[in-house]
Amino acid sequence: MGFIHLVKVFLLNYHVGMSTSPILVYSVPWDVTVTYRSGSHNSPGFIQESMVQLDDQHPFSKDSIQLTFLPVNSTIGGLQHEYKGISSSIIDALNHQKNLTSRQQQHLTDINCASRDLNQLVLNDIHHHRSSPVILCGGEHGVGVGYVASLSRQYDSFSILHIDAHMDCRVQYFGYDYSHASVMTHYAKNSAVSGITQVGIRDYASVETQFQAESDTPFHVFTDYGLHQQLFQGKTWNDVCQQILGTLSDRVFISLDVDGLMAYLCPATGTPVPGGLSYNQLVYLLEQVSKTKHVIGAELVEVNSSSASDWNADVGARLLFLLAGCF
C-alpha cells in the first residue's frame, strides 16, 4: 500500500466522521456475467478513492458516519481475472447467435461453479462481520446472493427494496446460473425473504412477470411509468413513497442498482434504460425508509467507472454515503 493510498484512507475515515459504530463496506469486484457493457468490477476501488471528495453533512442523518472499507478478498479478484475474458467470448458468440463450441460449453460450466464459489466467499466474509452494519459495493448485480444468505442466518424474515430499471427475474440468462439478470430470482427463493418491492422498473420480459406470478415470495412492482403517471395526475412523491413503504416489512434490505436512476447520474452503467428516478426522489425515498424501517443491509451495484475522478465514481460515492445514512 503506497503513501498516497494511506493518506486517502485516513482522509476517508476523518472526512465522514469518527463514530463509534463504523459502517463496513465490502467490495466485490466481479462482472463476469455482464452481457452488454463491462467495467463495474473496477468501481469499488474508484468509489473508495472518490469518497475523499465528500463533505461530512448527510441530507437526512444527523449522526456522524464512519465508512470503513474492508480489504478485498484476493480470491474474488483471482476468479474475476481467470474468467472475465473467457466469459466475454461466450457472451460475444451468443450475442451474434452463434452456437457455443464444446470448449465454451465447458467454460460456461466452470463459470457457474466459480459463481457458486463467489457466493460462498461473500457469505463467509460478511457473516464474519455480522455484528456491524455492512454495505456491499459491486460489481455487477448478483454479487449479493451470499450477503442475503448471510442475513437469513441472522433474521428469520425481512423484505427487499429493489431499485432498478430491470426486474432481474430470469431463471437463467445466457446459460449463467447466477447472472446479473437473475438475482431477484435467487433472492425470492430465500425462505427468509418475505417480499420484494421493485421500484423504477421499465425494462422486463414476459418470462419475468410469469416467474413473479408463480413465486411463493410476493412481488410488489412499481413501474417507472406507473410512478410518474401518479405524479402527472396530481399525487405527491410523498404519497407514492407511502405506497412503497406499505409493501415493506419492518426489516428491510436495500438493493440499489444505479440503472434504476435517470441515466445522467451514472451514464456508463452496464444496461442503461431511458427514464428512472431523479436523485432527490431517491434521497426522499431512502429518508422515509430510514425513518420508518429497520435497515439490516444494503448493496450498491452496476456503477461503471474508469477512474476515481470519473463522474460515475463520484455519484457512486454519494449513493454509498446515502445508503450509509439508512442504518
The number of distinct β-strands equals 8
Proportion of helical residues:
40-55%
Give the CATH architecture. 3-Layer(aba) Sandwich
Which CATH C-level class is it?
Alpha Beta
Residue fraction in strands = 5-15%
* CATH topology (level 3) name: Arginase, Chain A
Total number of helices? 11
The spatial strand order of the largest sheet comes to 2-1-3-8-7-4-5-6
- Spell out the helices and strands N to C: HEHEHHEHEHEHEHHEHEH
Total number of distinct structural domains: 1
Sheet/helix structural class: alpha/beta
Shape descriptor: globular
CATH superfamily: Ureohydrolase domain
Structural write-up:
The protein is of the alpha/beta class and 327 residues long. It has a single domain (3-324), classed as Ureohydrolase domain (Arginase, Chain A), CATH 3.40.800. It is 43% helix and 15% strand. It has eleven helices and eight strands. It has helices at residues 3-15, 43-50, 74-95, 102-128, 145-154, 183-188, 206-214, 224-232, 237-245, 279-292, 311-324; strands spanning 23-28, 67-69, 134-138, 158-163, 193-201, 219-223, 251-257, 294-301. The chain has an eight-stranded parallel sheet, with helices on both faces. Residues 1-20 have low confidence and may be disordered.
Keywords, separated by commas or semicolons:
327 residues, alpha/beta, Arginase, Chain A, eight-stranded parallel beta sheet, 11 helices, 43% helix, globular, disordered N terminus
In a few lines, what is going on in this structure?
Helix content is 43%, strand content 15%. It has 327 residues and is an alpha/beta fold. The two termini are 30 Å apart.
